[in-house]
Amino acid sequence: NKQVLLANRPHGWVHESDFNIVETDVPAIKDGEVLVKNLYLSLDPYMRGRMNEGKSYAASAQINDVMVGGTVGVVVESKNPAFQVDDNVLGYFGWQLYGISDGKGLQKINVTDQIPASTYLGALGMPGLTAWVGLISIGQPKAGETVVVSAASGAVGSVVGQLAKARGCRVVGIAGGKAKCEYVVKELGFDSCVDYKAGHLVEDLTAATPDGIDVYFENVGGEILEAVLDRLNAHARIPLCGFVSQYNATQPHAVRNFGALLINRVKLQGFIVGEHSDLFPQAFQELGQLVSSGKLKYRETIAEGIDDAPRAFIGMLKGENQGKQLVKLA
Ligand code: NDP
């Protein structure tokens, strides 16, 4: 087996030296257990938080722990009657080539030509469910309203915008760079996309949202949040999903115009997708239909091999990914 361990707690930006790659034996499985060969590892922004010490919604990783993460794989040995060799499974084995499970939390997945295994880590997986839960249950978009989403070309943002479009909203993305913005409009079908790196965020966002903003799906925080707060309509809703611009910051960005929430009687709700599993069947049904019919577009950036996982993770936090960031393990 090969594993990526947490070697140091980064202060500020993550470096490849904060990880340690080790080779270990694959232990023999006991009665009731299955051995899974992981095919893909998901790299997600929340993993940066696990590298820190301190209060969060989930426990920190300890030094020398295997980095956590969602995986899809194939059962290669089974002493558990619920799983057969060759079953495709979604698990949470982390940054390693093989994982052992007693079956709890391990989910069989149906891999087809239209639904490749990797989509269970992206559009049909945790990021897709996050988009659905935040937008539909908290954002409650109505036809004709303006929905803005940041990190718009990413795993979560790309699904948010397409779900909002399907509900008849005017959809505006915010993304870094011309290429990402072009993709968001031309491929994903958003009405408009603001390139926050172009140097005139406030002007461009104002031009793209002539009727103000009714729903802001927040993925990044910082200056983008400030620009959006100035464009909110009365009774706007903000599903607060992530703050990726702040995860490596040593000085937190102080938001100057929080009063906009009061003036506009805004509903802002932070959420963690895992606490909304009651909504997963409904979300999964819609997302599954959209993915298998080809209506929901998505992109993947796939790093080759576990040795490349640290570099790919840092790249994703810097915006080098196009859509869902994965690592191909086998
Ligand atoms: P993405 O695929 O969107 O990748 C991260 C993206 O963040 C980068 O591609 C980059 O896009 C953008 N980014 C990085 N730094 C900045 C910055 N300083 N300012 C603006 N954008 C930046 O990741 P995900 O879709 O997986 O995650 C998106 C957000 O959703 C994250 O904040 C994540 O923590 C959150 N999340 C929350 C969950 C929950 O349960 N609450 C569950 C899953 C995700 P660009 O090039 O456009 O800058």
UniProtKB/TrEMBL annotation:
Keywords: Oxidoreductase. InterPro entries: ADH-like_C, ADH_N_2, ER, GroES-like_sf, MDR_fam, NAD(P)-bd_dom_sf. Pfam families: ADH_N_2, ADH_zinc_N. Transmembrane segments: none annotated. Residues 15-327 form the Enoyl reductase (ER) domain. The keyword Oxidoreductase applies. The keyword Aminoacyl-tRNA synthetase does not apply. This is NADP-dependent oxidoreductase. The lineage of its organism: Bacteria, Bacillati, Chloroflexota, Ktedonobacteria, Ktedonobacterales.
